[in-house]
Amino acid sequence: MAVPGPRPSLDAWISDIKASGDTDGIGMYLVHNGVVRGHSRDGRPVSGMILRADRQRLEEITESARLMEGISAVRIWVNEGELQVGDDIMYALVAGDIRENVFGALQAMVRMVKTEVVTEEELRP
To answer: In what helix (H) or strand (E) does residue 81 lie, and over which residues does it extend?
Structure first.
């Protein structure tokens, strides 16, 4: 489920999933927390970024990740607006059966969000 609004609590996400009662197949929870770096991939300094997200595409990607083999639950939150170095860009959580399935699902989901959902404009000092 894509989560709109203010930054969620990762602990609350895990507690909610556990409280759902559908946890027999969960062997691990894997979390990604993307943050604004102080330099771009090419090494140039960055003071922040402006980030926009396609919420409809985010929901579609979240649903497709939930349907991947061995995956029991998915949560994702994407920050929007003008962000500073160190600010959170994204939280993503995947719960599933075994490492291979969960790592693969998280990696695919984060890659799709970065390439199909968010638009980032780096700000320079």
So the answer is: strand 81-84
The one-letter amino acid at 83: L
| Partners of residue 93 on adjacent β-strands | 31, 75
Question: What count of other Cβ atoms lies within 10 Å of the Cβ of residue 3?
Answer: 16
Phi and psi based region of residue 20 (left: phi greater than 0; alpha: psi -120 to 50; beta: remaining)? alpha
Give the pair of three-digit tokens for residue 87: 């600010």
CATH code at 10-123: 3.90.1170.40
pTM, full prediction? 0.92
Q: Does residue 50 contact residue 121 with C-beta atoms inside 8 Å? A: yes
In whole angstroms, what is the distance from residue 74 CA to residue 31 CA? 10
Residues 3, 62: contact at Cβ < 8 Å?
no
Question: What are the extents of the domains in the chain?
Answer: 10-123
What radius of gyration do the chain's Cα atoms show?
Answer: 15
Cα(112)–Cα(125) distance, integer angstroms: 29
Span 104-121, pLDDT tens digits: 999 999 999 999 999 999
